[in-house]
Amino acid sequence: MNKENPKSWRNDAYAKVTGRAKYTDDIKFPFMLHAVPVYTDSVHAIIKSIDTSAAEKAEGVVKVITHKDIKGALTFGQIIKDYQIFAKDKIFFNGDVVAMIVADTRFNAIKAIPLVNVDVEELTPILDTEVAMDPKTPFIHEEHGSNIINEHCVRRGNVEEGFKQCDIILDEVFHTQFIEHSYMEPEVAICNPRYDGVMEVYGSMQHPFSTRRFVSSTLGCALSEVEVIGTPMGGGFGGKDDTAAIVCARTALAAAITGKPVKCSYTREWSVRESYKRHPYKVYYKMGLTKDGIIKAVKCKIIADGGAYCSVTPWVTWRSTVQCCGPYTVKNVHCDTYGVYTNNVFTGAMRGFGSPQMNFVIESLIEMAARKCNLSVIEIRRRNMVRQGSTTITGQKLDNHKVAMEETLDTVLKEFLFEDKLKKCSYGKTDEDELYGVGLAMSYRGMSLGAEGVDFNSAIINVQPDGSILLETGIHENGQGSESALCMILARELGVTLERIRYRRPSTSTIPDGGTTVASRGTVLGGGAVVKAVENLKYKISEFISKKYNCEIDAVSIKDGVVHFGNDKKTFDEVIKEMFGSREYPHVLGIYRPPVVSWNEHNGQGDAYFSWTYGCQAIEISINKKTGKLKLLNAIAAHDCGKAANVEMTIGQFYGGIAMGIGYGIFEEVKFKDGKIINDNFNSYRLPRATDMPEMKAILIENPDPNSPSGAKGIGEPVNELMAPALANAIYNATGNRYFRLPIKVKLGEEEIICRRP
Amino acid sequence: MQTTINKKVYNIPDELKDVRLTDYLREYLDLTGVKNACEMRACGACAILVNDKSMRICHATVKDVENCDVLTIEGMENEDGTLHPLQQAFVDYGAVQCGFCTPGMVLTAHALLLSNNSPTREQIRKALQSNLCRCTGYQQIVDAIEAASVYYK
Ligand code: FES
Ligand code: FES
Question: How far apart are CA A402 and CA A706, in angstroms?
């Protein structure tokens, strides 16, 4: 496994291995105050009064802030504005914040928390989605007029007719769990009321522009009066949007009221209690096949628990709807999807965004179907998978990029010797102590936001008089290495060395809003914008040269730091110097707008995504019958990356995604008691550890995507959406037992298996 | 009381003896490479070296390191500011993503390699058992430590 010539590059690696990188909590301002949140014990209740008088008098306390202090809007949200900055009339879930204590030290602020008295009238918590959907159940958000947040559908062909042609019908119910993003750095914000009247915001957030909208809405001020400045961020995985932004908004309010810089740094317990999770799904799924293994019809009902607030539930469930048949072509599909309000912790974006749940369902079912049809698990996939020119279940023809589904599958089969391993599986029938299993799963995934979001991004290239280059883009570094990847794309496209490029982390005041860094869109959208900016810069340089030296614009080219024109050449540095000398700025903005997509809400048909990406993963496991230990032996992942911008970092995405997928499959689950989270720290919330992980192999398949200017496809999420079903299949192949609920708790007889390496 | 932190001797006034060690390092000395992530000894983000042993310090107070030799991530690099070979290996092998776990990982690995300069991958994983990383899946971290072990021989 030891790689000989690693050549990983990151612009922030030095700062991070030396401890010099300053994360938000590492920053201090003079005269800075500290703020902490105050929760109630309730899960669902009417607030009768909030008494802060005792807390106000406590040692060191400067101010206790509640909904009364909000100058702007009380609620905010990306889709439905239902998310309370401070709870006013009602508690919707146990993580609702009623007040914020601002004090001279964090210690004093925390000490005053029990002094806030909230008088409530308890209501019955509604914790089950199907109870919530029952018309007799009271509405959680009355103004919404329903407990159903949103609905989506797919209507294709005629399912009744389709099922009539089927020899085999599978009809199952699947459950998935709440999981916590578990970014290592909890939420934190510092807000500094600046002398020029602008509220300066630092924080650990996924998306500075989303944070700016939350802050300006809460303060009731213009967007230009808030400047959000990104700092190094200790992980996000989709989880640092709404909650991270609301922490910034409350802190900004505290700073505005006290006129002092305020820091609010969350404990892990507060973070787990208040921050949104991955949606748990309940999926009713009926699949019909002919005896030769062709899927003729699918009818499914998908119910997602949105918890107390909408967040991005409509978008998450939309992806589940579009991809509800996995990478298989099905002529007759009837899918209904519901996002539902409950009084559970709310749910929102998490790496995968609605696909990990569905892949668990589909990739389990396809293997169950294979057994019924007496086909191999590979053959049944080949018979149904999307291919070049296939039409998806939403009527999109896959012809504008290379459809690499079979390529990724074949790669895994070959590199993992999968079919040899498959022959060795125990299916629960062995006299030996060790049960052995191998399993795989595959998927395709729509790239970027798709038809539900506005998708564009920008980049600014600012060449300095000495030829050094500053790059800014509207993509935010979440730890994944996007800044480095974008610098590398710039170097490659412009034909200059990486050494002369510096990434200048933008603030919300220096670059146009580029949409959130989600949906694995960083490299695709940011990279696209960089490519466009390079085109503009090249044009500007060419135009200058052509005017000055009387040659055709087309005759100018840049390679290895040298500008060639006609038979002449000059170094890049010389040309830039001449440009400044002639009062020409080599400063450009590049904008990338991906191809337009389409969607019809009524029949769920349309070109949902502008391109697709393909992947396959497999894992081998053993289970010791005597000791009851489950061991993860080896794992493999092959994904079409389009064109990898930064190979080592892309491989890192694979490994991290596999690990998180394994956690989802067999370890992780947010547990509740009466609507309150009980495992709110890492001693009780079980994350994969170094000793749990198998040795992994990452295979990057490169089919540059013609729809992505840099050729890149997003990879952060595809790598995270397959391990749970691959494990489910491996566990079946080892034990002969099929599991319909995540995380899988393997049982041999009555005993539950403990997953541990020896 | 006295203690040595990153090769420098500190005389710490008695009234600070009961301060949380993470607060002392982060707030008083600005050694912010020590991170707070769980504050209940479950993640390793606060791990430092005390007398060459890796120690999670979120439950420790200043007096726990009286007369000890403490090393934080800020003390790892060479005097001229170049990286220690172990840090360099983390960079080269892509073992750093968000970086929040990195100081604790590097120091825990350093402690391992000081006591065992040719660990197996299994032993490296075992040593990292109490250090959580959500980004990397650990593999490139193990690769980096394995590669860096030659510099400890
Ligand atoms: S913060 Fe000390 S172990 Fe997690
Ligand atoms: S690099 Fe992010 S937690 Fe380890």
Answer: 9
- By most ligand atoms within 8 Å of CB, the mutation choice from B38, B108, B128, B132 for ligand 1 is B38
DSSP-based three-state secondary structure for B89: helix
Which SS3 state, helix, strand or coil, does residue A306 take? Answer: strand
Alpha-carbon gap, residue A756 to A171, rounded angstroms: 33
Residue A19: closest CA among chain B residues belongs to which residue?
Answer: B33
Strands (E), A456-531: 457-463, 469-473, 501-503
Place of tokens 């911008």: A645
Contact A206, A214 (CB under 8 A): no
Give A639's strand partners. Answer: A615, A700
Of A215, A241, A219, residue with least CA distance to A227: A215
Using an 8 Å CB-CB cutoff, list chain B residues near A1.
121, 139, 142-143, 146
A718 secondary structure, DSSP code = G
Assess whether the C-beta atom of B110 lies below 6 angstroms from ligand 1: no
Beta bridge partners of A254: none
In this prediction, the answer to ipTM > 0.90 reads: yes
pLDDT tens digits, one per residue of A199-223: 999 999 988 999 999 999 999 999 9
* Length of chain A, in residues: 758
Asked whether the beta carbons of A681 and B42 are under 8 A apart, the reply is: yes
Polymer length of chain B: 153
As given in the structure block, the two tokens for residue B50 are 């005390």
Residues whose CB is less than 8 angstroms from the CB of residue A363 and which lie 6 or more positions away in sequence, other chains included: A326, A441, A442, A443, A722, A725, A726, A728, A729
Is any ligand 2 atom within 6 A of the Cβ of residue A479? yes
Give CA B146 to chain center in angstroms. 17
Beta strands in A409-507, from DSSP E residues, in sequence order: 434-446, 457-463, 469-473, 501-503
Other Cβ atoms closer than 10 A to A435: 25
Q: Would you state the structure tokens that stand for residue A205, as one six-digit string?
A: 């957030």
Q: What is the mean pLDDT of residues B66-80?
A: 96
Cβ-contact A482, A475 below 8 angstroms? yes
Q: Report residues of chain A scoring pLDDT below 50.
A: 1-5, 757-758
Give per-residue pLDDT as tens, A676-690. 999 999 999 999 999
